[in-house]
């Protein structure tokens, strides 16, 4: 095997097994072997290796040393979301707010841009951030833009996953459970615009992807959703629910 293959085998095999078994002595030895072999590895792979050593240090009670390894991981691959997130967790346990917020910001930014993972969703339940629960800066950063209403949240989740027809179908199916119909129809309007852009680019053959019969059906849905939004505005039912969501998930597109 090449050195890269050896590192991958260690990283996704014995190292993971030893960490799951809480055998940190073995994990440390194996990670050191991986570090020694890692010179030809791409940055993202080196970052994963140093990240594992950071976890070993932390599990054995040396959070500060773990932070040093996380910094090495990020130096190897600056757009490495798990490294930034772990750094935020480690710094939070030490109460270093000035380091926590930038690390979290990068975890959120790179998590979404690299792999469409929204780290904000897990942060609210992460015990490491307990002391920051009432901090205004922290709360503003981790606000994911999603509504509390579960049915409406599901619609927004489909949009965030670029599944516009699923968003429309879910909203229609659970219409009676949604408490903000203005936001719902704004979401529908956004969803049908997504579909229209896809059809403009790839042609009507993609209608089948959305289980739509014709372009005229797209036009009809567009007009329907547009009128629903306009009518609710006339009745004074406007809310900023969808605008807040877009600002977080689709900045510059609303």
UniProtKB/TrEMBL annotation:
SUPFAM superfamilies: TPR-like. Gene3D superfamilies: Tetratricopeptide repeat domain. This is Tetratricopeptide repeat protein. The lineage of its organism: Bacteria, Pseudomonadati, Spirochaetota, Spirochaetia, Leptospirales.
């Amino acid at each position: 095997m090449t050195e890269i293959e050896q590192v991958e085998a260690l990283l996704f095999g014995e190292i993971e097994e030893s960490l799951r078994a809480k055998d940190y002595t073995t994990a440390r030895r194996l990670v050191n072997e991986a570090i020694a072999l890692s010179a030809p590895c791409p940055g993202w792979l080196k970052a994963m290796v140093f990240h594992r050593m950071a976890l070993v240090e932390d599990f054995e009670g040396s959070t500060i040393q773990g932070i040093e390894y996380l910094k090495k991981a990020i130096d190897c691959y600056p757009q490495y979301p798990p490294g930034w997130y772990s750094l935020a967790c480690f710094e939070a346990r030490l109460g270093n707010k000035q380091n926590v917020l930038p690390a979290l910001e990068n975890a959120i930014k790179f998590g979404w841009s690299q792999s469409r993972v929204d780290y904000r969703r897990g942060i609210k339940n992460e015990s490491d951030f307990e002391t920051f629960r009432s901090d205004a800066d922290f709360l503003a950063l981790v606000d994911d833009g999603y509504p509390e209403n579960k049915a409406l949240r599901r619609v927004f989740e489909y949009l965030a996953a670029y599944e516009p027809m699923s968003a429309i179908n879910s909203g229609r199916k659970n219409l009676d459970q949604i408490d903000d119909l203005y936001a719902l129809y704004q979401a529908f309007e956004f969803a049908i615009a997504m579909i229209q852009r896809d059809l403009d680019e790839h042609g009507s053959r993609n209608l089948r992807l959305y289980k739509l019969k014709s372009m005229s059906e797209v036009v009809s849905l567009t007009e329907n959703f547009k009128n629903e939004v306009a009518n609710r505005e006339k009745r004074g039912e406007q809310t900023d629910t969808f605008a807040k969501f877009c600002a977080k998930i689709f900045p510059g597109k609303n």
